[in-house]
Every structure is written in structure tokens, then in C-alpha cells.
């Protein structure tokens, strides 16, 4: 799906300022991908909160998710037209590539981090990501590891002073660029609290500002008569399941 299609779907929700902001994005897609939210706000003569409200009206969790969409949508739309693989093959590819990647990663340092942590704090930037960490939480409980899932940003902020170097944090995201969480990551970094970031493949803020980083694959696919572009996080669930199993094996050895 292109940005134009998203705008059309949500047109009734958009005000005049929203349309001005989106007009600039449509006219300057490459430029927008390199701009921070404050830079864009200055260029369109709007506030940061106005830009954020506009992106949320299109269904994104924030400006960073919109940038991620812009970065991948054009290339993936072109690929969808020429690519004869069906959606089931893409599903298999996401899972296969993610598991092959996990097989190649040395998980020993991450398992050591889990083992040494009094509490593993988990936070997800979206609903689908939270489903994955909820399952991770259940699996880790079965091997007697104390895990706490933080359901929203408010609770993450509230618990920040309680997290120590004796704990660790697992942050799960799609883009790895969620603006509202960047400050938390910087704080963990400054306080030397170990963090595992789990994001879709690619260079991103979460990966650069965490102790450890794991990738999962989530290719776009086209479905339905209206050729809607979809994206599944099934490979993220596979990664988190693999991670909990890996720790289970490690715990037996210990």
C-alpha cells in the first residue's frame, strides 16, 4: 500500500492541517525519510504534536513507524507487482530466514544476561509485538525465571527508577525507531543496564543503543481485491519462542 491509499482511506478523519502535512510528505517522500519529527514540524509550520496526531490518524503508532512505512512501501509495492511468489511462500520465507539467523547467532551472552538478572523487564512498542512477549513471559516462567511485562509507556516510565544493573530489559519493536521510547533507551545506556533489542531487520536506533540486538524478518505481501499491503510478525513469535527455548537449554546445563 502507498501513502496515497492510506490517506484516501482516512480522508474523513483528516483536518486542513493534517492535509497540509501530508501534502508535504507526498511531495517530498525521500526528504521526509531523513527528517526528524521536529524538523518536519518546522518545515510545515506545525507543532510536533500536530505531526504526531496526523500520523496516528493514518493508523501508525508514531512518526517513526510512518517513516519506516515510507522507506519500505515503494520498493515492496514494485516487488509485489513483479514477484510471483504467493503469500504463503512469503510466510515460509519470513520464518525460515529468521530461524536460520537465530541458528547463526551466539546466544550465550544473552542467556548469561538472563541467568544473572533478578528480573527481566519486557516492553513492546505495539499490540502484535506485545503478543510475542506475552508468550515469551509464559515460557520463561516455566523455567523459573522472573519476568515482568510492562503493558504501556506509562508503566515503563513508572518502573524506570526500580530497574537496576542486576536486572535486564527486553525491548521489542518493528522499526526500532519509536520516538517516545528513545529516551528510555538512552537512560538504560547511561545507567549501564543491559538491554536486548528485538526489531525487524535493518539499522535502527534500538539496535544502536542496546547491549544486544536480534533481528526478525517480516516481508510485505499483497492481499484482497483492493491489493492491500499486509505485514505479519509471525517470525517475531518464532524468534521469541526460540530465545526462550535456548535459555531453557542453557538453564539445564547450569
Task: Explain what the structure shows.
It is a single chain. This protein is of the alpha/beta class and 254 residues long. It is built from 13 helices and 7 strands. It has a 5-stranded parallel beta sheet with strand order 2-1-3-4-5, sandwiched between helices. Strands 6-7 form a two-stranded antiparallel ribbon. Strand 1, helix 9 and strand 2 form a beta-alpha-beta unit. Helix 2 crosses helix 5 and helix 8 packs across helix 13. It is globular, with a radius of gyration of 19 Å. About 3% of the residues have low confidence.
SSE order and pairing:
Elements: H1 3-9, H2 16-27, H3 29-33, H4 37-43, H5 48-57, H6 63-82, H7 87-104, H8 108-116, E1 120-124, H9 127-141, E2 147-150, H10 153-159, E3 168-172, H11 179-190, E4 195-200, H12 205-208, E5 212-216, E6 220-223, E7 228-231, H13 234-253
Parallel strand pairs: 1-2, 1-3, 3-4, 4-5
Antiparallel strand pairs: 6-7
C-alpha Rg (nearest Å): 19 Å
Strand order of the largest sheet: 2-1-3-4-5
Helix fraction bin = 55-70%
Elements, N to C (H/E): HHHHHHHHEHEHEHEHEEEH
How would the global form be characterised? globular
Structural class: alpha/beta
Amino acid at each position: 500500500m502507498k501513502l496515497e491509499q492510506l490517506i484516501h482511506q482516512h480522508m474523513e478523519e483528516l483536518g486542513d492541517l493534517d492535509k497540509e502535512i501530508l501534502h508535504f510528505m507526498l511531495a517530498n517522500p525521500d526528504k521526509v525519510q531523513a527528517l526528524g519529527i521536529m524538523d518536519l514540524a518546522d518545515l510545515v509550520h506545525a507543532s510536533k504534536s500536530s505531526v504526531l496526531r496526523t500520523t496516528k490518524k493514518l493508523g501508525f503508532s508514531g512518526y517513526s513507524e510512518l517513516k519506516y512505512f515510507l522507506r519500505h512501501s515503494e520498493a515492496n509495492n514494485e516487488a509485489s507487482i513483479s514477484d510471483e511468489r504467493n503469500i504463503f511462500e512469503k510466510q515460509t520465507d519470513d520464518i525460515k530466514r529468521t530461524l536460520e539467523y537465530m541458528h547463526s547467532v551466539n546466544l550465550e551472552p544473552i542467556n548469561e544476561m538472563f541467568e544473572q538478572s533478578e528480573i527481566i523487564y519486557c516492553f513492546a512498542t505495539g499490540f502484535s509485538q506485545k503478543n510475542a512477549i506475552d508468550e515469551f513471559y509464559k515460557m520463561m516462567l516455566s523455567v523459573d525465571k522472573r519476568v515482568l511485562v510492562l503493558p504501556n509507556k506509562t508503566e515503563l516510565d513508572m518502573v524506570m527508577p526500580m530497574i537496576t544493573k542486576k536486572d535486564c530489559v527486553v525491548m521489542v519493536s518493528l522499526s526500532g525507531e519509536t520516538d517516545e521510547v528513545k529516551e528510555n533507551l538512552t537512560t538504560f545506556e547511561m545507567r549501564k543496564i543491559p538491554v536486548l533489542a528485538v526489531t525487524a531487520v535493518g539499522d535502527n536506533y534500538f539496535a544502536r543503543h542496546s547491549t544486544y540486538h536480534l533481528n526478525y524478518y517480516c516481508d510485505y505481501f499483497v492481499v484482497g481485491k483492493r491489493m492491500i499491503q499486509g505485514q505479519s510478525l509471525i517470525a517475531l513469535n518464532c524468534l521469541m519462542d526460540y530465545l526462550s527455548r535456548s535459555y531453557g537449554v542453557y538453564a539445564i546445563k547450569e
